[in-house]
């Protein structure tokens, strides 16, 4: 549109240039309206998802974090922010949970614990975790989870494995019948940097699909995890029936694989914040 106008400006008759000017203004305002609308839709969606996450997180904390919870494992991601907020309210506003120690599962969750001035623990001193609360990228009907969308799966699985009870909090977009129904970015797998190519080929030969190295958005090259490793996202074949327990065990045994984002038989309950302001609880 602009190029011919610029080239022809001197040749345009006054009335024609006015017509073109009006047309351009119309186009710009239409484009602006479309952009504003899509921006507003995105904002509305984010507000809706955030309120679903907050609701799930607060409900789970209120039902599960009691005076008997001495060691609380804290997961990672955007939903866990609301978990820590609620725990901090209980500690600092209500004067409750005086013996609580929080064990983080990532750099982010450590920062959240510190920012809210909650007592920070670690697995060296607090290896028996009473309760672990975390988010998930997808939860299927058998409570198999995909985790690691935020890149923190290895420490998350370690802390979760030390917990008596694992509770998942998520918004309604994370619930599905089969893995891959909602979450299309694949199963995150943490790998040693020198092994990502053989690991990629082994997974693809064993189970099909495609395993890709996760690259950073604001840095050239791959994402580096909190543990200094690479991440692969394995896009499995959505139509194929997988035994996730077997897949998890087999992939975990490939030399160079440090952990998978498949959490099988770990979660006891999942709290989903729904779009209508209710909470749906899924049991194991
Ligand atoms: O596994 C995770 C981080 O690695 C998160 O729990 C998962 O990605 C869900 O995140 P969010 O609460 O932001 O949706």
TrEMBL record:
Keyword Aminoacyl-tRNA synthetase belongs to the record: no
One of the protein's GO biological processes: D-ribose metabolic process
InterPro entries the UniProt entry points to: NagB/RpiA_transferase-like, Ribose5P_isomerase_type_A
Enzyme class: isomerase
Entry EC no(s): 5.3.1.6
Domain of life: Eukaryota
Classification via NCBIfam families: PRK00702.1 (NF001924), rpiA (TIGR00021)
Family to which the UniProt record says this protein belongs: Belongs to the ribose 5-phosphate isomerase family.
Name listed for the protein in its UniProt record: ribose-5-phosphate isomerase
Source organism: Drosophila hydei (Fruit fly)
């Amino acid at each position: 549109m602009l190029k011919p106008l610029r080239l022809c400006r001197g040749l345009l008759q006054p009335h024609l240039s006015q017509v073109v000017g009006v047309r351009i203004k119309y186009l710009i305002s239409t484009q602006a309206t479309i952009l504003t609308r899509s921006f507003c839709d995105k904002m509305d969606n984010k507000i809706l998802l955030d309120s679903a996450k907050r609701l799930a997180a607060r409900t789970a904390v209120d039902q599960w974090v009691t005076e008997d919870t001495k060691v609380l494992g804290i997961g990672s991601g955007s939903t866990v922010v609301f978990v820590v907020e609620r725990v901090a309210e209980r500690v600092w506003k209500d004067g409750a949970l005086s013996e609580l120690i929080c064990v983080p599962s990532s750099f982010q969750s450590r920062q959240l614990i510190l920012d809210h001035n909650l007592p920070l623990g670690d697995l060296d001193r607090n290896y028996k975790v009473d309760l672990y609360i975390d988010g998930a990228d997808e939860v299927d009907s058998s409570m198999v989870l995909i985790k690691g969308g935020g890149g923190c799966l290895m420490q998350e699985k370690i802390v979760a494995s030390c917990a008596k009870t694992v509770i998942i909090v998520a918004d309604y977009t994370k619930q599905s019948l089969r893995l891959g129904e909602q979450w299309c970015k694949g199963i995150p797998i943490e790998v040693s940097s020198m092994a990502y190519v053989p690991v990629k080929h082994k997974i693809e030969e064993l189970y099909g699909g495609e395993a890709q190295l996760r690259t950073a958005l604001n840095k050239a090259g791959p994402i580096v995890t909190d543990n200094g490793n690479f991440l692969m996202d394995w896009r499995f074949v959505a139509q194929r029936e997988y035994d996730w327990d077997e897949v998890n065990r087999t992939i975990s045994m490939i030399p160079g694989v440090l952990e998978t984002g498949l959490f099988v038989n770990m979660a006891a309950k999942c709290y989903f914040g729904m779009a209508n302001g209710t909470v749906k609880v899924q049991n194991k």
